[in-house]
Amino acid sequence: MQTRRLAALTALLGLAACTAAASNAPLPDPAYDEARPATHTTETAVLAGGCFWGMQSVFEHVRGVRQVWAGYSGGGASTAQYEVVSGGTTGHAESVKITFDPAVVSYGQLLKIYFAVAHDPTTLNRQGPDAGTQYRSEIFFASPEQKKIADAYIAQLNAAKVFDDAIVTQVAPLKGFYAAEDYHQDYARRHPNDMYIVVNDAPKVVRLKQVFPAMYQDEQMVVDVKL
User: Fold this and answer.
1) Which in 23, 134, 192, 212 has the greatest CB count within 10 A?
2) Is position 51 annotated as part of the catalytic site?
């Protein structure tokens, strides 16, 4: 917690900030995406892209998203605690688990928001003031179809040279998601005046509303951390 507040002060001095993705150009829609079902159902996406406070805040504002949890993916259950993950040696990345209605928002559209406004996919093991493998960009796919959509979209964006640098986002199978401690859940909502949130995360929500107005919604609920 204290480390992030110090990082926010560094950002204010102009040394680092994580307020937008690496491209100001509009991103294309995924050329390959899942078909929209006719009935309302629920699917799950797990994404990592820096501090989970900001990632959670962005996706809670996406129409069709039902709930978002902050947590850890990539490592084992025994090391899924904030103080341990922060050491950068557990294999975990700070992640979000998103439950969404694919009849309203597709997996590919979630990835478009992920790449466009939720984080910078071109920085290796770093997002703004936060550095370490726990802040890496990674998509944890829950099905072969999700992997196909993610791989195809990364290839599409790289081929279109949407970003000045190559995308470094990893794509790996989801082996487990472990909810973060209660005090991390909905942190941005509960602490809007925290300087870290003001500098690094609130601008992402503003950008979401500007770039994707039809997909923007007010936050629907506080998460239930019981998985």
Assistant:
1) 134
2) yes
What CATH number did the domain enclosing 165 receive? 3.30.1060.10
- Give the residue numbers spanning the domain of 149: 2-13+42-206
- Which phi and psi (to 5°) does residue 224 adopt? -95, 115
Number of domains observed in the structure of the chain:
1
Residue with tokens 């993705």: 21
- Regions in the chain scoring below 50 on pLDDT: 2, 5, 8-20, 222, 225-227
**Residue 163: inside a domain:** yes
| Beta pairing class for 93-100 and 65-73 | antiparallel
| 64 Rama class: left (phi>0) / alpha (psi -120 to 50) / beta | left
pLDDT digits (tens, 9 = 90+) for 124-137: 999 999 999 999 99
Q: Structure tokens of 98?
A: 């998103």
Read off the tokens for 182: 């209660």
| pTM beyond 0.85 | yes
Integer Cα distance of 65 and 101 in angstroms: 6
Domain for residue 225, yes or no? no
Joined together, the tokens standing for residue 109 give 């559209």
**Residue 220 domain-assigned (yes or no):** no
219 within some domain: no
DSSP-derived letter for residue 36 is P
Please identify which of the residues 8, 51, 80, 105 carries the catalytic annotation: 51
The Cα 100–Cα 211 span in angstroms is 20
CA atoms within 13 A on the CB side of 85: 26
Instruction: Measure the CA–CA gap between 198 and 151, rounded to whole angstroms.
Output: 33
